[in-house]
Write a structure and sequence with these properties.
- Helix 2 packs across helix 9.
- It contains 13 helices and 23 strands.
- It has 2 domains: 230 residues, Bira Bifunctional Protein, Domain 2 (BirA Bifunctional Protein, domain 2), CATH 3.30.930; 93 residues, Anticodon-binding domain (Rossmann fold), CATH 3.40.50.
- The radius of gyration is 25 Å and the shape is globular.
- By secondary structure, the protein is α+β, with helices and mostly antiparallel strands.
- It has a 7-stranded mixed sheet, sandwiched between helices. It has a 5-stranded mixed sheet with strand order 20-19-21-22-23, sandwiched between helices. A 3-stranded antiparallel sheet has the order 5-4-6.
- Bound molecules: adenosine-5'-triphosphate.
- Adenosine-5'-triphosphate (ATP) binds next to strand 10, strand 13, strand 16 and helix 9.
């Protein structure tokens, strides 16, 4: 993890938030390469689960919602972590994260466990008297339930169908840790899939297959993934069955995403609390019912971290250490680097012009500083799948070499064919 965190900072993937003020615990900034990586990941998720499916539509709801939402959803009552405090050093811990009954930091005695609500409160309103307390959403899905009727009636969707959303969520985590794995501000990629009660199990199983396939599609190693089924006694208040996809991070197995059967809990709760009917009327069958919900709920930051961990490789090449990020090309922040072999004799100008034409199609990078071998290594370190070298022959016959990041092999290719070649290799349609 230390090597990966250092690479992420050095190369501009992820920084500590507010670093010049000493940082703020549990908050992170995605730098120039990190923002591309995470955006590619989210776009790929959206492409696969929303745009490619006629039975799922999208939503982008507000982060701050009516405070009653969080009462109805059970979060005000139930969204608690059980915490203990150290009587000596005063550090606080989640009880379920402790391995022993003493403080892991100083060995001191711990207090009795107590409940701590992990929603972040905020105040909305322009004067102290009129402002109301509400919360930054701790999960994106509640807006999907609250907007259920508006979405299905405006888009004419019929059960079974799903609503998907990607957005920020906030939790006042007791111990943010393991880099971006457990943060206080993070992004979720959630789907609420509405179905008939009798189809709950079949829909759940189908989602298990679809989710698993997506993680393989973004390049995670299958042997580093597993399912974890929650025992009945540890299920959340809304769930009758939950299974998590876990990934083997360098710090151990950790949850990438949950898949929960929420039944009719949420729609029923919001119907009761708001007085607005959130049932569905099936015109064909002439029947009204409250659909059940199967929820695949993923974290964009955790998936990004898994992709980073999975991509990180140290290799020995001709006696030198090579650090290479073997991202799936469709996720790579930079798709191609254009490198002139030398700066003189019009080669650099030719390379710059070529880079400009490629930039219109995908994210590129131009680099003429230093020996060509060093430039290749720099691109390996940030996971650029293709390096294009413009040399003297290019001037003669309009060909370039295209170097493959993983095999390090170079192929000569007409310049006119390069863009299409790279686009095909980086496309999320290629599977
Ligand atoms: P954990 O048990 O690790 O606290 P959770 O079971 O509470 O997670 P869910 O409520 O199921 O998490 O949230 C769905 C997804 O949102 C998680 O699988 C994870 O990918 C992401 N997520 C939840 N909490 C965090 C966090 N603090 N930081 C980053 N991602 C998170």
């Amino acid at each position: 993890m230390k090597d990966l965190v250092s690479l992420c900072t050095r190369k501009g993937f992820i920084f500590q938030s507010s670093g010049i003020y000493g940082g703020i615990n549990g908050c992170w900034d995605f730098g120039p390469l990190g923002v591309e990586l995470k955006r590619n990941l989210k776009d790929d998720w959206w492409y696969n689960f929303v745009q490619q499916r006629s039975d799922i539509v999208g939503l982008d709801a507000s982060i701050i919602m009516h405070p009653k939402v969080w009462e109805a959803s059970g979060h005000v009552e139930q969204f608690h972590d059980i915490v203990v405090d150290c009587k000596e050093c005063k550090h606080r811990f989640r009880e379920d994260h402790l391995e022993a009954k003493v403080c892991p930091d100083c060995g001191g005695e711990l207090t009795e466990p107590k409940a701590f609500n992990s929603m972040l409160q905020t105040r909305l309103g322009v004067s102290d008297e009129s402002a109301v307390n509400t919360y930054l959403r701790p999960e994106t899905c509640q807006a999907i339930f609250v907007d259920f009727k508006e979405v299905y009636s405006s888009s004419r969707m019929k059960v079974p169908f799903g609503i998907a959303q990607i957005g920020k969520a906030f939790r006042n985590e007791v111990n943010p840790r393991n880099f971006i794995f457990r943060s206080r501000e993070f992004e979720q990629m959630e789907i609420e899939f509405f179905c008939k009660a009798e189809n709950e199990e079949a829909v759940f199983e189908q989602w298990k297959a679809d989710i698993w396939k997506w993680y393989l599609d973004i390049g995670l190693t299958e042997s580093k993934m597993r399912w974890y089924a929650h025992p009945k006694e540890s299920l959340s208040h809304y769930s009758s069955r939950t299974e998590d996809v876990e990934y083997e991070f360098p710090f151990g197995w950790g949850e990438l995403q949950g898949l929960a059967n929420r039944g009719t809990f949420d729609l029923t709760a919001h119907t009761k609390a708001s007085g607005k009917d959130l049932s569905f009327f099936d015109q064909q069958a002439n029947e009204r019912f409250t659909p059940s919900v199967i929820e695949p709920s993923a974290g964009a930051d955790r998936a990004t971290l898994a992709v980073l961990c999975n991509a990180y490789h140290e290799e020995e090449v001709e006696g030198d250490k090579r650090i290479v990020m073997k991202f799936d090309p469709k996720l790579a922040p930079i798709k191609a680097a254009v490198l002139p072999l030398v700066k003189k004799d019009g080669i650099a100008e030719m390379a710059q012009d070529f880079e400009k034409t490629l930039r219109k199609k995908f994210n590129t990078f131009y680099d003429q500083a230093g020996a060509i071998g060093r430039r290749y290594r720099r691109m390996d370190e940030v996971g650029t799948p293709f390096c294009i070298c413009v040399d003297y022959d290019s001037k003669e016959d309009n060909t370039v070499t295209v170097r493959d990041r993983d095999s390090m092999e170079q192929a000569r290719m007409p310049m006119a064919e390069v863009a299409a070649y790279i686009q095909t290799r980086c496309s999320n349609e290629r599977d």
